[in-house]
């Protein structure tokens, strides 16, 4: 279709990048004749109207082509996922999602040369993000419709559109589904697992992010998100690899409803569904201790607490609910301030950091 779009416009109209509705209808006829009837549905009047037009009423062919490609990809993805849906209930279990991802690897430019020994681990890591965002109730089943509409699938498919040479190291690290990111996560877990038993204790997890997370936050993570082990005694509790992936996903996606929901359960010290000034004071006390140990200036905890209240502006002036954090658009920043001394430092130095970013852009 792309070749026909380019050839027909160049040959008949001398316009390679744009087409008006008359061109659109002509190309619809050519595509239907040369490719088949399946093309017809993409050339409806309503589809033409979806795209931005120039002053002459023309649309760019690239956005139209990308729309076709994405629609076909989603249709194929739905077919592939439905074939893997053993219960035929519209949901995928972890092993089914991993099988779907494994089938995509040979067709994704940045993944096809992955070492075979790492494929299984990669699929576990990649599948977990789908469940983090598409299985909010943690039932172990991700809705296929949600998966198809999620940003996760788009992020995974991006590995098909670009060759690895065209992607910067930063972009690879930021894409959870890149090989670079998966190896980083795996290496991180192995480095933390000092006793090499395949799980992380509270003491081991405290070394995450160079030990900048507070002790009370680590305790709350285990209270809310780590199941008790079936071995090692009734009170034994260590974090398995899947729980670690959820932990990392929440910290790397603090501004999303899913990430903030995970973190709010940890911040809600008494499980009441809201935070009080006493909760904020208790949570920030550990951040304050690390702040002072790092050689920084003295802080007044009450001032920070009041600043957080001003940032949130909760509906109830005496308590902060999850809905307040989500609606204030600063929930991720506030969570960072309460669990991570480095997160508080970034907030405290936000003006300097912003100025540095602007200077770097100007230099570029």
Automatic annotation (TrEMBL):
Compartmental location: Cytoplasm
Any one GO MF annotation of this record: calcium ion binding
Gene Ontology biological process terms from the UniProt entry: cortical cytoskeleton organization; microtubule cytoskeleton organization; regulation of dephosphorylation
Domain EF-hand: 72-107, 180-215, 255-290
Transmembrane regions: none
InterPro entries per the UniProt record, alphabetical: EF_Hand_1_Ca_BS (IPR018247), EF_hand_dom (IPR002048), PPP2R3C (IPR039865)
GO cellular component, as recorded: cytoplasm; spindle
Pfam families linked: EF-hand_8
Main location group: cytoplasm
Swiss-Prot/TrEMBL keywords: Cytoplasm
Key word Cytoplasm present: yes
Coiled-coil spans in chain: none
UniProt name for this protein: EF-hand domain-containing protein
Naturally occurring in which organism (per UniProt): Zizania palustris (Northern wild rice)
């Amino acid at each position: 279709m792309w070749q026909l779009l380019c050839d027909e416009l160049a040959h008949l109209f001398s316009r390679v990048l744009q087409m008006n509705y008359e061109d659109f209808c002509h190309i619809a006829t050519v595509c239907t004749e040369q490719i088949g009837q399946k093309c017809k549905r993409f050339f409806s009047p309503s589809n033409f109207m979806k795209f931005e037009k120039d002053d002459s009423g023309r649309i760019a062919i690239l956005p139209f082509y990308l729309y076709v490609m994405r629609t076909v990809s989603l249709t194929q993805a739905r077919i592939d996922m439905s074939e893997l849906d053993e219960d035929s209930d519209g949901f995928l279990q972890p092993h089914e999602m991993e099988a779907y991802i494994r089938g995509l690897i040979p067709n994704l430019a940045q993944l096809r040369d992955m070492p075979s020994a790492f494929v299984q681990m990669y699929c576990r890591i990649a599948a977990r993000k789908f469940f983090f965002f598409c299985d909010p109730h943690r039932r172990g089943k991700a809705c296929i419709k949600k998966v198809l509409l999620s940003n996760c699938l788009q992020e995974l498919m991006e590995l098909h559109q670009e060759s690895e040479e065209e992607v910067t190291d930063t972009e690879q690290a930021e894409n959870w589904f890149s090989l670079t990111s998966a190896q980083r996560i795996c290496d991180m877990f192995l480095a933390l697992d000092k006793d090499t038993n395949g799980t992380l204790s509270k003491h081991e997890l405290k070394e995450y992010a160079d030990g900048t997370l507070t002790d009370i936050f680590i305790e709350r993570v285990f209270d809310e998100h780590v199941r008790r082990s079936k071995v090692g005694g009734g009170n034994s509790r260590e974090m398995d690899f899947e729980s670690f992936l959820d932990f990392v996903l929440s910290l790397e996606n603090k501004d999303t409803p899913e990430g903030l929901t995970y973190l709010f359960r940890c911040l809600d010290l008494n499980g009441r569904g809201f935070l009080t000034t006493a909760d904020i004071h208790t949570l920030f006390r550990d951040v304050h201790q690390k702040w002072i140990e790092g050689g920084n200036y003295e802080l007044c905890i009450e001032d920070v607490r009041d600043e957080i209240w001003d940032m949130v502006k909760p509906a109830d002036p005496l308590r902060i609910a999850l809905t307040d954090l989500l609606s204030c658009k600063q929930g991720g920043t506030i969570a960072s301030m309460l669990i991570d001394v480095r997160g508080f430092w970034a907030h405290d130095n936000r003006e300097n950091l912003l100025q540095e970013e602007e200077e770097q852009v100007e230099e570029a």
